[in-house]
């Protein structure tokens, strides 16, 4: 068994067109995520899906039990791939993620999904703090336009800033083609 797993974070319907919280670039990110997922499945390496639900039915998105909170069809779990339900940005917080990884002897994580500035960032930093070796697939991740102190920050800049920070001190940050090529 491989000590390397794919972690797919929050690629759920509300982030796609027609959802309650659509992200910039989600279609391209999901297509790349699907390619990475197929590669991991073909090579027999484990995959773990992370699904976010807020704990309240008045949440802005990912309402418990809603279609929007369901994992998107492009990356649906197969063949008993575990789904870890989370209620916080960090996928390790109050979940069984670390237990699942440790039980399988996993030390290397490849992470992709959404959103760059929240759940990807929080989970990657926590993973590194817990001693995992992390690779982030930057073009298989999407985010949103943000604003701070009346300054608009386009999604592309949000994404690049977070990927630069993760690459600086936390993870190897690579494109889909590199992870696909390295797995062949």
Q: Briefly, what is this?
A:
This protein has 184 residues and is an alpha/beta fold. The chain is built from five helices and eight strands.
Topology:
Layout: E1 4-9, H1 26-42, E2 47-52, E3 83-86, H2 97-103, E4 108-114, H3 116-129, E5 133-142, E6 146-148, E7 151-153, H4 155-169, E8 172-174, H5 176-183
Parallel strand pairs: 1-2, 1-4, 2-3, 4-5, 5-8
Antiparallel strand pairs: 6-7
Helix pairs in contact: 1-5, 3-4
Pfam families: Isochorismatase
InterPro entries: Isochorismatase-like_dom, Isochorismatase-like_hydrls, Isochorismatase-like_sf
GO molecular function, one term: hydrolase activity
Write up what this structure looks like:
The protein is α/β, with parallel strands linked by helices. The protein has a single domain, classed as Isochorismatase-like (Rossmann fold, 3-Layer(aba) Sandwich). Helix content is 33%, strand content 23%. It has 5 helices and 8 strands, in the order βαββαβαβββαβα. The chain has helices spanning 26-42, 97-103, 116-129, 155-169, 176-183, and strands spanning 4-9, 47-52, 83-86, 108-114, 133-142, 146-148, 151-153, 172-174. The strands form 2 sheets. A 6-stranded parallel beta sheet has the order 3-2-1-4-5-8. Strands 6-7 form a two-stranded antiparallel ribbon. Helix 1 links the parallel strand 1 and strand 2 (47-52). The longest helix has 17 residues, at 26-42. The model has no long low-confidence stretch (mean pLDDT 96). Pfam families: Isochorismatase. Residues 5-153 form the Isochorismatase-like domain. Keywords: Hydrolase.
């Amino acid at each position: 068994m491989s000590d390397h797993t794919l972690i797919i974070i929050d690629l759920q319907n509300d982030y796609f067109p027609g959802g309650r919280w659509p992200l910039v670039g989600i279609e391209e990110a999901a297509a790349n995520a699907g390619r990475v997922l197929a590669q991991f499945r073909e090579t027999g390496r484990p995959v773990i899906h992370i699904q976010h639900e807020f704990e309240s039915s008045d949440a802005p998105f990912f309402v418990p039990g809603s279609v929007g909170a369901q994992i998107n069809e492009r990356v649906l779990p197969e063949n008993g791939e575990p789904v870890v339900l989370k209620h916080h940005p960090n996928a390790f917080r109050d979940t069984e993620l670390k237990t699942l990884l440790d039980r399988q002897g996993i030390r290397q994580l490849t992470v992709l999904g959404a959103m760059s500035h929240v759940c990807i960032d929080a989970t990657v930093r926590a993973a590194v703090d817990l001693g995992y070796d992390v690779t982030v697939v930057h073009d298989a991740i999407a985010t949103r336009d943000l604003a701070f102190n009346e300054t608009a920050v386009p999604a592309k800049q949000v994404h690049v800033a977070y990927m630069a920070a993760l690459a600086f001190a936390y993870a190897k940050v690579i494109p889909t083609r590199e992870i696909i090529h390295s797995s062949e």
